[in-house]
Amino acid sequence: xxxxxxxxxxxxxxxxxxxxxxxxxxxxxxxxxxxxxxxxxxxxxxxxxxxxxxxxxxxxxxxxxxxxxxxxxxxxxxxxxxxxx
Length: 85
Prior knowledge:
This is DUF8129 domain-containing protein. It comes from Haloarcula mannanilytica. InterPro entries: DUF8129. Residues 53-85 are annotated as: Disordered. Residues 33-73 form the DUF8129 domain. Helix 1 runs parallel beside helix 3 (59-84) and helix 2 runs antiparallel to helix 3. Helices cover 62% and strands 0% of the residues. The protein starts with 25 loop residues before the first helix and ends with a helix. The protein has three helices and no strands. The protein has one domain (9-84). The protein is mainly alpha-helical.
């Protein structure tokens, strides 16, 4: 992969051009985290997590997906609390 190519989360094992093994490198993991941080739907995150669980089972990606889910739920809870107050 050249530096000018764009990488998406789909490139990591969901039919993309990059090898699943690359996610274990630090740079590839950082790219995956950037993609995960752009996710705003718990349903989307659950789909990616299901894929990871079934196919790649990459612990760093799974951990970040779970953390992103917690962040979204926390934000939703904060929004509900402000609406009540």
